[in-house]
Input
Amino acid sequence: MVFLTNKIARNLIIKEGRKEGDVNMHATIQKSLEEIMSFIKDEEKVLIVGCDNCAAKCKSGGRPEAEKMESRLKEKGVNVTGWIVPEPAGASLCKLSNTKKVLLEDHSDMVGESDSVLVLSCGQGIHTVMDAVGDSLIIHPGCDTTFGGETTKDGELIEEFCSLCGQCIIEHTGGLCPLTLCSKGLLNGPCGGTDEGKCEVDANKDCGWKLIYERLKSFDRLDLLLEYQEPKNFANSNQPRQLEITEKEVKFTSANGVKVIER
Amino acid sequence: MSDLSKALSAGEFVVTGEIGPPKGTNLENCLKKEADPLKNQVHAINVTDTQSAVMRMGPVAPSVKLLERGIEPVLQLTGRDRNRLALQAELLSAWELGIKNVLCLTGDHHAMGDHGESKQVYDLDSVHLLKTINTLNEGNDLAGQKLKGSPDIFAGAVVNPGSEPVEMQVLKMKKKHQNGAKFFQTQAVFDPYQLESFLEETKDIKAPILAGIVLLKSSKMARYMNENVPGVKVPENIIQELENTPKEKLQEKSAEIAARLIKELKDLCQGVHIMPLGWSHVVPKALELADLTQMAEIKN
Output
């Protein structure tokens, strides 16, 4: 029995919505104006920086959003130097070389005039701005980075299929991740709250384990549901983590130690 | 060996009850109202563990108080709030306090309760928990270390025969049994035919099953359960029966309905698990109507 890869698997799942233009990205939502205002001191000159990739797709930090944030802040009496969403079209803020060029060369005067920058993007975009400007500007996070998402329906819907958990077990579940799709992240699901394929938490939400069951059933592999799945090894989840690449090895480090993988 | 374990081994028709600890320290009142009416009526009483993810006193203290009253507890333990260290620690403590029966549950999602912003754990699910008890009973912990003294916990699990698709429940039940469940209590059952067909699917699982019986307090409650409790399907005729009952006769009717169900299920399974949901005082009547008073006689 051949197991299809996760990418193909997703196309076969319940979801019909994936179109040619659909992509994967970091899903972000804007922080409330109230919270953002609490970051800004009186007299502070704020520069708004957005991102034309993921944040634009999430409508949290693209051009219209950056422009709107400027008027909202100005309405509240904030001294806004302006807004920048780095070009070219679709550019990721997290691409350091481009962001550096845009901020320190193309718009050096705006940057020079500002005390701080409100970044409308995911955490990686925010850190790229920090790397670009160094100590010269205070950084305010304008968005909450919520999950690694995949767009469907040409971007109308962004869903989560992988939680970046560090220990991929989808071999045992037909390519569907129970940590992500099950509200409780169970490895030996379902729980007693499943009924008619819906989760006890939200009647509109599919039970992740029902999806897994259906998929395994279609491959005639329900035997996999009887296999005991060990408790997750959280040792690899201890942050911060890093990957070090040398000539002969790749070293994964978490707070629990180093895992060496030969190349 | 726990009394529950002995009774099941002996092939007695076992009756278990259930109480929910108080939201606060008023345990004595809770026990008087919910546990005392069940004494000598049931083989053991389950103590729920932060049921519905609503914060309340944990199940260990009430279980100890039940022991002091001469009632055997079944400690319910969920994976939602404690990691594997804390769960193993809790199991050893519980054993030390005389608690011998543990029902292993995954745990209701915190979205259903009153502390929706808490950090959920789910380090161990119900299957892991069962295996953990097995491991401790064999004298080791989950890290493979030898224990200085080991428990002999009688572990049980839950199954939901009314949940669709039923095949998922059957597979889960098999898995629970394979990993240490020695007995099962079901979610509330109202349809003996459905239970019968479920039991047919699971007849190769050699573990006693106690059918769940909920005391229905009103037609409103029945409808609420149909809408909100997965796998529970109170049939329309029972709802009508309750609807046509005047308020002052509801407790009597509740006992009557429960007794009828118990009689219909008696020959299908090894016992019943009664969830009075606060109406413990109605249970003795229900058992009497169901001709299940031998338990009280034996105990006395």
Remarks:
- Chain B is about 40% helix and 15% strand.
- The longest strand of chain B covers residues 14-19.
